[in-house]
Write a structure and sequence with these properties.
alpha/beta; five-stranded parallel beta sheet
Length: 342
């Protein structure tokens, strides 16, 4: 195995990263692992920028190897540990490389890749670790992203929160847009013209296009995302026939006021990356409601943070305020699925 030119699929959640992984996992030369959240969660949770020796490594590894992020990869912990250099102190880079090498070995493919959407915020470290890495950055209409996230059991059910995350993700992209190691792929192009889009991606990766990619077979078809019924449905969708009518579902899922809020908060990124606004903004009344909802949201999250109960991967809203925060200026937001998957 080699870590000289790994592939990373990143982007805002619900932007097509799972679909891109399904396509690339079907390539005979590339093994793209499930989401590890290695940098976005596990390194951050560790509390230190780097491992501080073998004892520190053992503590980190005990927690990470027992997590669902690790177990769903289907690799042997002993195999990963055996791949660490024995003649030097362990580093996060070496641990991650050993993990990815072990995963690629289970597939018999020569090149590994990884798909964690949130790693878009850690590209400086990713490309510092692997200067010859190649990043496929998925981008999708923010209105569609927010509408989809409102139905995800693990996501914060707040329009302003998710729209701000999309905005921040494009700011991250702006910093790397001119780097030849990063290629933007629009979700809409992948769905409407998958073969042309994948041929362009393969050219970027220096890999021959393979017709088997169009079938989206491989390991990713059998793997679980870890979110129960919703997760299984998510995986099935990534391998189902592509449907272009899904591109505009946000028009039925969101009210006009909600669309106006999203467009207001994401307008710079929308225009920069070719998305067209359909409203003139939330207006004075909508803006006042928006500010009130954002202040409420921030105050409640701060209280939860101080109490030590806030979680980064679930909605931090009180049961009685859930509809208010979810809808921002209009309560007609799609209902959240009953199945939490937790």
């Amino acid at each position: 195995m080699t870590d000289q030119s790994p592939v990373f699929i990143v982007g805002m959640a619900r932007s097509g990263t799972t679909l891109m992984r399904a396509f690339l996992s079907a390539h005979p030369g590339i093994a793209v692992s499930p989401e590890t959240h290695f940098l976005s969660y596990w390194v951050r949770r560790h509390g230190h920028e780097e491992l501080r020796g073998w004892s520190d490594y053992r503590d980190f590894w005990a927690a990470f190897s027992a997590s669902h992020h690790f177990t769903r990869m289907g690799v042997d912990p002993a195999d990963v540990s055996a791949r660490l250099p024995a003649d030097e102190p362990p580093t996060f880079r070496n641990v991650f490389t050993a993990l990815m090498d072990a995963y690629a070995a289970t597939t018999g493919k020569p090149r590994w890749g990884e798909k964690t959407p949130g790693h878009h915020a850690h590209l400086a470290r990713v490309l510092g670790w692997y200067p010859n890495a190649q990043v496929v950055y998925m981008l999708r209409d923010p209105r569609a992203v927010v509408a989809s996230l409102l139905e995800a059991p693990w996501a914060e059910p707040s329009i302003t929160h998710q729209a701000a995350r999309w905005r921040d993700s494009t700011r991250s992209l702006n910093a790397w847009e001119g780097d030849p190691r990063v290629q933007i792929v629009h979700y809409e192009a992948l769905v409407t013209d998958p073969e042309t889009t994948l041929r362009r991606v393969c050219e970027f990766l220096g890999e021959p296009f393979d017709e088997r990619m169009m079938a989206r077979g491989g390991a990713s078809r059998q793997e679980s995302s870890g979110y129960g019924q919703w997760g299984q449905s998510h995986i099935r969708e990534a391998h189902a026939p592509l449907r272009t009518d899904s591109l505009l579902k946000w028009q039925q899922r969101l009210t006009a006021q909600q669309v106006a809020l999203i467009e207001y908060l994401t307008r710079k990124g929308m225009f920069r990356y070719g998305y067209t606004a359909v409203t003139e903004g939330p207006g004075a009344f909508g803006w006042a409601r928006l500010m009130g909802a954002r202040v409420h949201d921030r105050l409640f999250r701060e209280v939860r943070r101080v109490q030590g109960t806030a979680r980064a991967d679930v909605a931090d809203v009180p049961p009685g305020a859930q509809t208010q925060v979810r809808g921002e200026v209009n309560a007609e937001t799609p209902a959240r699925p009953e199945e939490s998957g937790k």
